Amino acid sequence: MKSLPRSAARSKPLSQRVVRQRLMTAYGIALDDAMGIKEAEASKIVRAMTGAKDDTSSGSADDEFTKGILAVVRVLFGRIGRRFLAKQAEQIRTEEDLNKRINDIRRETYTFPSDFRKAMKTFMEQLPRRGGPGRKPKLSPQEEAVACDQVTVFVRNGMGIKAALKRTADNSPTLLGKPVGMRTLQKVWQRRNAIAKTE
Fold it and tell me: What pTM value is reported for the model?
């Protein structure tokens, strides 16, 4: 029996079972590479997370959390991707079509880690801060005004701004009733015009 020419073999119709199996395998391998975690391991971690005690004895809490997030994302994208590819499989008829789609999968998943990091950064920026609106200011508006007045006095007496800020920081336990660093005073001094308007 003669073998089919190469071009004929490439255009030979494929069964849906073969197409699906090869698409799912290619997607699984590409996603494993992109995420750095295999689906079986990811599924195991997710199962442990959903019914497990908080055990971080094998590593730091941050490491465990990061691995947990990766595992959840890996399982989630595995499921979503397979569902999506199952629909696409119906349109693939030949070996050439299948190979083209597998190459597309490899290319698309290659950029996945950086795309995911960007998406996570955007997501994290939208989360509310824990414990309220943020850090409490080191100085009250009245203390800021006193500090600015003291820096102004030193400057009028011929000191440079940097020296005046340092001297005010050194005197802050007496002047403000608590130690205040030069960097904090520098930020306050930069906002002196706004502080003067609120007095």
Answer: 0.42
